[in-house]
Amino acid sequence: MHSLNNLIIEFYDKLSSWEQSVVKDTGYSLAQVHTIEVLGSHGPMRMKELADRLGITTGTLTVQVEKLVQFGLIARTPHEVDRRSILVELTSEGTALHKHHNRMHLQLTEDITRHLDPESIKVLTQSFEKMNREF
Amino acid sequence: MHSLNNLIIEFYDKLSSWEQSVVKDTGYSLAQVHTIEVLGSHGPMRMKELADRLGITTGTLTVQVEKLVQFGLIARTPHEVDRRSILVELTSEGTALHKHHNRMHLQLTEDITRHLDPESIKVLTQSFEKMNREF
DNA sequence: ATTATTTTGTTTGATTGTCAAGTTATTTGG
DNA sequence: CCAAATAACTTGACAATCAAACAAAATAAT
Questions:
Q1: CB atoms within 10 A of CB B38
Q2: Domains of chain B
Q3: Signal sequence: where (chains A, B) (predicted)?
Q4: d(Cα B82, Cα B88) in Å, to the nearest integer?
Q5: DSSP readout, A61-120?
Q6: With contacts defined as CB-CB under 8 Å, which chain A residues touch B7?
Q7: pLDDT band at B1 (very low <50, low <70, confident <90, very high)
Q8: What is the mean pLDDT of residues B73-96?
Q9: Is the CB of B59 under 7 A from strand D?
């Protein structure tokens, strides 16, 4: 248990470094790419929901979104029913960035699991499912 | 493979959120606790090495270390042989914080793995070992 | 041995990400 | 209909960060 704990911490650290270097290559900041990632994997959403998912305040997000709009990565559209709200969604350019980032992640997953046999991958997948449910 | 990739991303996100909330409770910042963590798990080291492990410049670290010294969490001692260098190490208070954080991590690992049978934990541990080696 | 280069840590100035608090517009509940 | 809650924005203040310039010391080259 103790060793598994250390392995998880090490895994997290290495994933962090990897993410940082991959993001740097895009020319955008970590916060910016993270925003694109969330929008890409969950689809268009209101500012409030996006802020919650990113773990930041809406005030911070307002500024961040403004930049991303100027970069042409995302677009703001009024909410159909709630006129207080704004829907934020990826532009085609934003979608392209998300897909690119996704491919990087997939490649990494393939790279780090290449010495695992099919049975281990199966157990690993099930274990991640169970662990993610417990957070 | 595709689903495993998504599970890893989800796992990373959840671990991130967890870390953020645990760190917030300590009253110190994420960067500060991270510095304590590295010093706690690897022992005293030079500024340069610490900066490299944290993925920041020595300039940034100089400022950060100054604060942590004022908080009484770490101490600076001259390097025995290289007079350009400074050794940074945890004080007893810093060690206490590290131990506390470590206990939190261990508790989390126990919590998220509680529905895994011993055999799965074994495979999971071996898989993490192999994956960490491939980064 | 002397000089040039590299390494280590610090300082400074600029930029980014962040929050808290206050504001406005809108929605919801009594 | 009015009060309270919610959504987004604005502003002012910090934290964290980097790059560049610097000084001191170690290392390499000649």
A1: 18
A2: 2-134 (1.10.10.10)
A3: none
A4: 14
A5: HHHHHHHHHHTTSEEEEE-SS-TT-EEEEE-HHHHHHHHHHHHHHHHHHHHHTTTS-HHH
A6: 125, 128-129, 132
A7: confident
A8: 96
A9: yes
